[in-house]
Write a sequence for this structure.
């Protein structure tokens, strides 16, 4: 067995750890879980640290449980939140749970015959028939209000929202999460809960509940909340979250996010978000420091995490798409892009609209009359004849060429290129 705690330490993935955790894990294979609230039908990269910790846990020979909070997701965790969440109905939550399991399957082994194969559990299964009276009688009496009020997640929320306070619904979240730990400890043998550092209070409520109810022993380990080197929030862009669902964030955009991280961040992220061994990572860091301009770390990081999330084929497509603006991409590669990726690659490029009925038309008319790719036909003629113009990544030197339906990409776009870097999109309406 590999030493799980040692593995996380060198990767910078431990914030807090309960005494005795490492020793317990070295006794032999153990079970642990991470909780994820299914508030959306996709994970985003903010979830990935906890998921990677669970992946390392399984890789070290232990049994991971992924808990999706079908019950707690109906309430909302007050930790690090400035306002109460909207409550979700059961049908929406069940849909979200199914989607999350499919995504988690890219990171965890759920399907093999290994004794430590991962399992997905939903706390709605053991909470839905638990009456309120029975819960507060059986569970609530073991944890005092004083104990719950002392938690940072509660204190910070109350200090921020002195005017509105915190509803009893949210206040009860801590007790429900604590009961999850107790249930998994009692029924699945889970001795450890893993999560982000903002979950420390909720996790230790679970260990305390186990101790007070059954005199049992359980442990806690949290990872730091990831921030960028400049202190801004990790995983957010101007367009919002970076999602694992390709319909929300295309594999190209996902790949680009990792490819464009800062050098200091890349040194941390490659340890956290890949499974590469220490020796290889140390060598990559040294290589990168010798010549940062090559962006060695970013390229490897983007490759590893894109393949892990989306597969080798989507990674190859993302690389090909990345070469559109600056590499020697072909017309075939351009036409292979789906519409979402095409628009992402050429985001911000000047665009024009023409009626489909205006095709076919002469090249010079298209570029200088129907659109303003060129200021005049004379300017267009000069650049085309000089070999400085491309249509859909194909060089065009014939000024008498006609542009027709065969030149339309994805049923609605034509890509014009002046020189090496000036692109224009002509959209058909």
């Amino acid at each position: 067995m590999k030493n799980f705690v040692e593995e996380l330490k060198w990767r910078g993935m431990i914030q807090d750890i309960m005494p005795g955790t490492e020793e317990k894990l070295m006794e032999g294979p153990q079970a642990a879980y991470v909780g994820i609230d299914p508030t959306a039908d996709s994970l985003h990269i903010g979830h990935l640290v906890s998921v990677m910790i669970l992946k390392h846990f399984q890789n070290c020979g232990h049994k991971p449980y992924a808990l999706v909070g079908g019950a707690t997701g109906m309430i909302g965790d007050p930790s690090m939140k400035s306002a109460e969440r909207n409550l979700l109905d059961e049908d929406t939550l069940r849909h979200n749970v199914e989607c999350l399991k499919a995504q988690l399957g890219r990171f965890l082994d759920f399907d093999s015959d290994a004794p430590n194969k991962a399992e997905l559990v939903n706390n709605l299964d053991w909470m839905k028939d638990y009456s309120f009276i029975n819960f507060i009688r059986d569970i609530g009496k073991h944890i005092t209000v004083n104990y719950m009020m002392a938690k940072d997640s509660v204190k910070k929320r109350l200090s921020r929202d002195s005017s509105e306070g915190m509803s009893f619904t949210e206040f009860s979240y801590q007790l429900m999460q604590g009961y999850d730990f107790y249930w998994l400890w009692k029924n699945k043998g889970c001795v450890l809960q893993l999560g982000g550092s903002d979950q420390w209070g909720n996790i230790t409520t679970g260990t305390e509940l186990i101790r007070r109810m059954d005199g049992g022993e359980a442990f806690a380990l949290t990872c730091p909340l990831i921030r960028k080197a400049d202190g801004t929030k990790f995983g957010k862009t101007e367009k919002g979250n970076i999602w694992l669902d390709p319909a929300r964030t295309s594999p190209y955009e996902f790949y680009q996010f990792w490819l464009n991280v800062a050098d200091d961040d890349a040194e941390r992220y490659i340890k956290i978000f890949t499974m590469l061994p220490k020796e290889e990572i140390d060598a990559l860091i040294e290589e990168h420091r010798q010549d940062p301009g090559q962006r060695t770390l970013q390229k490897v990081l983007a490759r590893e995490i894109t393949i892990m999330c989306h597969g080798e084929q989507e990674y190859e497509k993302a690389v090909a798409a990345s070469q559109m603006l600056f590499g020697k991409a072909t017309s075939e590669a351009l036409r292979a892009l789906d519409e979402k990726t095409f628009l992402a690659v050429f985001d911000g490029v000047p665009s024009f609209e023409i009626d489909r009925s205006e095709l076919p038309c002469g090249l010079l008319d298209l570029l200088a009359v129907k659109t303003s790719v060129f200021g005049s036909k004379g300017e267009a003629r000069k650049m085309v004849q000089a070999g400085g113009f491309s249509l859909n990544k194909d060089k065009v030197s014939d000024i008498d060429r006609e542009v027709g339906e065969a030149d339309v990409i994805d049923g609605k776009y034509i890509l014009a290129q002046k020189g090496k870097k000036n692109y224009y999109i002509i959209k058909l309406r």
Observations:
- The radius of gyration is 27 Å.
- The first strand starts at residue 16 and ends at 17.
